[in-house]
Amino acid sequence: MTVLFVTGTSTEVGKTVVTAALAATACAADRIVAVCKPAQTGVAAGEPGDLATIAGLGGAGRTVELARYPDPLAPDTAARRCGAPLLTLGETAAAIDDLASADLVLVEGAGGLLVRLGDFTLLDLAVELAAPVLVVAAPGLGTLNHSELTTRTLRAAGVPCAGLVIGSWPENPDLAMETNRADLPRVTGIDLVATLPAGAGSWSPDRFRAEAPTWFPEPWVKRYLVR
Description:
Its cofactor is Mg(2+). By secondary structure, the chain is of the alpha/beta class. It contains nine helices and seven strands; from the N terminus they run βαβαβααβαβαβαβαα.
């Protein structure tokens, strides 16, 4: 079983669509893919959440959500507000280990690397499972700072960064976006491995699954998704 974590430099940067693209890419190579979303917030019971998007677009076979809270807040805050117990590092790591029948397990966090999912962060979980983290970044102003903070934190914790992905690239990028795309690898020391087109999350599953494997370089796919 290969485990890859997906985090963002902030919220609303495209983590879910990137995770769906990773799933689609691995599935296209005949790998069995499972996806874990430890905590989903801002979605009521019975409503489709991020895992429904990932399964619908990317074709992941098994999805696991450990906790769901109605308020659109950090998971630990949302749990306290509704009186729910906090997720623990141990139970979350065990739930991921239980997906060992899959070739690839993708773990999507909430917000950024240090957002508390319970009594732990995604960084804590990556350290616990000794797994790499893929960082999804926004294209516009502020992304250089956010991306460098995130990658430096990973480096300080001894967690491998699997690369940077720009989660949503518009048809008409502005000057800041164009320069950021060039500068992100320079300031972070991490390769920019993919740039996803804006609006891909609204594509049909057939189109998404056909195009997603073309977004990632083959050597990277072999290293992180299909080994």
